[in-house]
Amino acid sequence: MQRDTPLFTEEVLQKHVKFLKRHLLLLPASHQSTDVNLMAVVFYAFESLAALGQDIATDYQSNLKWMRSNYVSQKVTDEELSGFIGGPTMNIPDTITLSLPNTLFGLLTLVLMRDMEFFDKVLNKKTLGKFVSRCQLKENGAFVSVLDYKLGKASIIDSHDLRFCYIAVAILYTIGCRTEDDFKEYIDVDSLVEFILSQRSAFGGFGAFGEAHAGYTSCALSALKLLNKLDELSSLEKEKTLQWLIDRQVTREGCWEKQDISNEYYNEDDHGGFQGRENKSADTCYAFWCVNSISILYPNLKTMLQTEPVKDHLLNRTQNTLTGGFSKCYKEDADLYHTCLGIAALKLMEGSFNGALCIPTHAAKEFDL
Amino acid sequence: MFDIEDYKDVEPLPLTQDVTNEEELCRIMYCDEYKQVMALMRRMISKDELSVRALRLNSRAIELSPAFYTAWNYRFRIIEHLLKEETQLQGEGHDASYMLNKELDWLDEFTLNNPKNYQIWSYRQALLTQLYPHATFSREHPIMDLMLDDDSKNYHVWSYRKWCCAHFKTYGQEMAFTERFIKRDVYNNSAWSYRFSMLKHSDVDLDQELQFVLDKIEYVPQNISTWNYLGGLLQMMGTSDKLVEQLLQFSKKYIDESAFAYEFYARMSKLSGTANGKDVAQMYSHIADIDPIRDQWWNRKSLQADQGK
Ligand SMILES: [Zn+2]
């Protein structure tokens, strides 16, 4: 087999590693707003480091106990629930602060840390599943991300959308659900699938008010894939969704040259990258959301999509080889979220990444995911 | 106003983080105010104190940490409780709208300062559905207008507007509303998508709507939003021979400058029967030339057409 040239020189690789590790150490007060969602920060950094080939399990062995301490059990009337809280600040007596996104981030972080013992001995699948179950809305099958902190019912002030639907499914998949019956032990699969399909726009992508959005589309397709329900979409519908996704690749070539300055979001530097919606600028994170979505519908990615221009856009436009990390778009500062998804997109195109769970393939395989 | 002196009797529940402990990840060097406000609020949430001073503290906490999900939940419970108290005090039937308006004022201000936060919109929905039966759509207009002036494609605001229409059962202004944004920027896909989702609620004449979108395509042919809209409209109107012929001639004018026009032209050619599978296959091959980044996609379409799919 022919080996591709590596994505990063050793020098640039080290810059990325340094950039990522910095987010795990001492942070200035400007990071205070992430205090209540620390699991997200840890996951973004670990996922990126693991994808870059760093040995998380060894390097961060001493942090394992702290990581596990964010997995908590909380009692609602007579029922025991468990899951992850956003961080130590969210540990408040007599208050239910479990969070769906932080639970997925926490679980996947422990997968990246190869903490088999947690999954075998510490994790209570039943009570965690019950927490997920309580986040599902009876009226439409969708999910919210938190429970009312006193009543333990799905929070009425939270939004319910495709993100949380995906997260709920990914959590259940991670704790071992595979068959429809496995999922049905905790959630109403039929109404969930119905909700997901109701979010499909007339133009092929998925979204909230009829406007398709690549992030939501990735959530919808990933959830359907993990539920083994992709065939709820007809082949004609799949084809239309695929075209919507393929159309999100931004270009300056061919007839696009004629696109004039009248579109303020059109930018020559975006060539090869992906936008999240029609007529928007290219943005690093959408390279991941779109490429992941395309690969779910059409695994033979390279015969469907020109991956070289995507790579080129990420490496030469949004990668910051000085500070390390990736930015949202050309000439902006790198940030953790776009670094995570930029690297994920590159690895996905290389074929070494599990897009539906957003972790490297080798890490997923080790845990039979 | 928020004054720390009001909380002297509250025993703080301090943040547990230890900056010197290297076992902890992401040790944030909190500012003093953050530590103080969070320590008080953690205690008050834990005790579920639903009071005016709790609301003041909560405002400060949310300003410091807009993503603090439990704080929004706490805020809602406080408002709900104060409202109940007020109504009991004034007697049944008493209108406590002024209190809710004050809350919406605070939320407006917060929204303007935190345009990317998404919790504000679902919090707002909860206020209107659970606590505020006298709310009006017009009270909601200014904040949406301000937010869209700032970012005309703000996803949350467009979503919220659609929710408002359903909540207040009012759809009368929506076509005119989107037209304002389309006039300003014909590429605004949010406005076009929103308009499409509103079509079924409006009494607009579809022939007139067709002319509307054709004019916009004429203005800039290489614009995916308008071609999408035209495609959707065609599906609603049905593909009569006359209409297909009209759109065939229309799209043909732009095939040299727009891949979308060409694709539409190929579809109309097939529908009208003026082109067979081989002809359509050739058209798709040509689109691969004018849209080279998607050449694999167009070649696939070409092959499908050739095979009569
Ligand atoms: Zn982004």
Number of spatially distinct domains of chain A: 2
Q: Number of helix segments of chain B?
A: 15
Q: Give every kind of bound small molecule, once each.
A: zinc ion
- Spatial arrangement of strands, main beta sheet of chain A: 2-3
The CATH superfamily of the domain at 1-133 in chain B turns out to be: Protein prenylyltransferase
Low-confidence stretches of chain B: none
Give the radius of gyration of chain B: 28 Å
Characterize the main sheet of chain A. Answer: 2 strands, antiparallel
What does this structure look like?
Chain A contains 16 helices and seven strands. Chain A has 369 residues and is mainly alpha-helical. Chain A has two domains: 60-189, no CATH class; 199-369, Glycosyltransferase (Alpha/alpha barrel). With 309 residues, chain B is mostly helical. Chain B has a domain at 1-133: Alpha Horseshoe (Serine Threonine Protein Phosphatase 5, Tetratricopeptide repeat), CATH 1.25.40.120. Helices cover 68% and strands 1% of the residues of chain B. Chain B has 15 helices and one strand; from the N terminus they run E-H-H-H-H-H-H-H-H-H-H-H-H-H-H-H. Chain B has helices spanning 32-47, 52-64, 69-90, 97-113, 119-131, 137-150, 155-168, 174-184, 189-199, 206-219, 224-237, 241-252, 259-272, 277-290, 295-306, and one strand at residues 27-28. In chain B, helix 5 runs parallel beside helix 7 (155-168) and helix 13 runs antiparallel to helix 14 (277-290). The interface between A and B is large, with 81 and 79 residues. Residues 283-285, 328, 338 of chain A line the site of zinc ion.
